Amino acid sequence: MGNDTHLDDERRKGYDGTGAGAITPDGCAVEVWTRLPVGDAPDVIEAAVPPGARILELGCGVGRMTHPLVDRGFTVTAVDESAEMLGRVREGIRTVRSPIERLDLGERFDVVMLASFLVHAGDVAVRRGLLETCRRHVAEDGCVLVQREGEDWHLNVPRESRIGTDGIARILSATPVGEGVNSVHAQYEFPDGTWTQTFLSRPLSTEAFEQALADADLRVERYLTEDRTWVRARPHG
C-alpha cells in the first residue's frame, strides 16, 4: 500500500555504513533500526497532537514510531527514501518512497513529523528542503513536530548506551569537516554482529534552529520535553 517517486539509490556524499544486510543512502543499517527501542517518543507525540490526527511521518525508517502511532488510533502516511526500510512497515499502512526534500503529495496533514535529528542535515540546502516539505504539507491549523539533538550531543563524545538487553550503541567521534558541520561516527554492537554509520550533522543552537524554522515560514510554539529535543511548531500567520 504505497507508491514511489523517482530517486537515486546511491549513497549520499559524506554518509556511509557497514555491517550485514541493507545499508540505506544515508548509511543506516536496516537491521539495526529494527532493534532500536522507540522510547517515550510515541507518548510525547500523542500528548502534543489531537486524537486521531492524520500524520505525515517524514523519515519513518522501519516503522519504529509508525506502528505505535497507528496502534493509538492515528492515521499515518509513512515516507522514507529506502525501499528496504519501507519493507519493514506493516501491511495496510500507506507508505511513500521518496527523498523527503523532494516530496510533494499535494495534500495537507494535521501533523507533519520530522524526527531522528533529520533537521541537523549537514547540507544547508537539504535542511531547507526538509523544512519546506514540512511547511508544504501541514494544514494551516496543523502543527509540525521536530526532534532536535541534545545541546551537548556533539560535545559529550565518546559515549555509549544500552540497546535492550544485549546491544550497545556508541557515538565514537564527532569530527569537524567543514564550516559548522561534523562527521559523526557511530557503532552498534550486538552478540551476532557489529554495524557502523558515518553521517554529517550540523549542530544548531536554539537561536539557529528557530531561525531555520522561520525561514521555512514556521514558528516554534513550544518545546515539548525538558531537554528541548522535541518541538511543536506552527505555520506563520
- CATH top level of the largest domain is Alpha Beta
Q: How is the biggest beta sheet arranged?
A: 8 strands, mixed
| Total domain count | 2
End-to-end C-alpha gap? 35 Å
* Overall morphology: globular
Assign the CATH topology of the largest domain.
Answer: Rossmann fold
| Average pLDDT over all residues | 95
Strand proportion: 35-45%
In CATH, the architecture of the largest domain is 3-Layer(aba) Sandwich
| Helix coverage percent | 10-25%
Figure out the total of helices. Answer: 6
E-strand count: 13
CATH superfamily of the largest domain: Vaccinia Virus protein VP39
Q: Largest beta sheet: what is the strand line-up?
A: 1-5-4-3-6-7-13-12
Word description of this protein:
The protein folds into 2 domains: 2-151 and 203-235, Rossmann fold; 159-200. Helix content is 19%, strand content 36%. The strands form 2 sheets. Strands 1-5-4-3-6-7-13-12 form an 8-stranded mixed sheet, with helices on both faces. It has helices at 30-33, 41-48, 66-71, 83-86, 124-137, 206-215; strands spanning 2-4, 16-18, 54-58, 75-80, 94-97, 109-114, 138-147, 159-163, 167-178, 181-190, 193-201, 218-223, 230-235. A hairpin with a 2-residue loop joins β10 and β11 (193-201). The longest helix has 14 residues, at 124-137. It has 237 residues and is α/β, with parallel strands linked by helices.
Show the helix and strand layout.
Layout: E1 2-4, E2 16-18, H1 30-33, H2 41-48, E3 54-58, H3 66-71, E4 75-80, H4 83-86, E5 94-97, E6 109-114, H5 124-137, E7 138-147, E8 159-163, E9 167-178, E10 181-190, E11 193-201, H6 206-215, E12 218-223, E13 230-235
Parallel strand pairs: 1-5, 3-4, 3-6, 4-5, 6-7
Antiparallel strand pairs: 2-11, 7-13, 8-9, 9-10, 10-11, 12-13
